[in-house]
Amino acid sequence: MAGAVAAAGSAEQFHKLLQCPDRSLVVVHFWAPWAPQCAQMNEVMAALAREHSQVSFVQLEAEAVPEVSEKYGISSVPTFLFFKNSQKVDRLDGAHAPELTQKVQRHAAGAAPAAPAQEQLHARLSRLVNAAPCMLFMKGSPKEPRCGFSRQMVQLLQQHGVAFSTFDVFSDEEVRQGLKAFSNWPTYPQLYVRGELVGGLDVVKELKESGELLPVLKGEN
């Protein structure tokens, strides 16, 4: 129904609304009844729905449909996801009415969606994690680490005599933020072996304690 905000009370309803054939853009508000900022953003959504009849607006109570929230990494409310052809093309975290309005206007107008840029970043990150058999994404460089965790990680790798390459995440903000989502690992350093995430410092320390670190670094596990 044009101008209305739909409610998705289940994963089935959510997927059905995403596949709505007469809408090019679907905006989903992940909300919670206990959060006052969500009520405010619901009012903003209702106003946007009246202005953009060609866009589908959906409310989904994040904690009531946990399988959907977990699938899309919803860790706080309000969060807004933007879908085209059932594929997520953009995201907005927090109660930012002006930014929500701008994103709706941009995507509804048929401007270039975020997906191509995201695909380019994904391809770039794939190349980076595979740039060497053992890749360490750290803060600073091996000679000048810029955090204690990165310094300890470098020392552990050097102790095992395995050749490794590094990338300073402070040198590229796009990589620094993008790799967190790419790896689903929120902190640095991050260690990759043959393109696969091993983990952060705690994981590497556990592998060292169990005697499994060297085989992992050599790609034998």
From TrEMBL:
Keywords for this entry? Cytoplasm, Iron, Iron-sulfur, Metal-binding, Repeat
Per the record, the domain of life is Eukaryota
Name of the protein described by the UniProt record: Glutaredoxin 3
Kindly give the Pfam families that the UniProt entry links to this protein.
Answer: Glutaredoxin (PF00462), Thioredoxin (PF00085)
What molecular function does GO assign, one term?
metal ion binding
**Native species:** Taeniopygia guttata (Zebra finch)
Q: Where are the transmembrane segments?
A: none
| Keyword Iron-sulfur belongs to the record | yes
Which cell locations does it reside in?
Cytoplasm, Cytosol
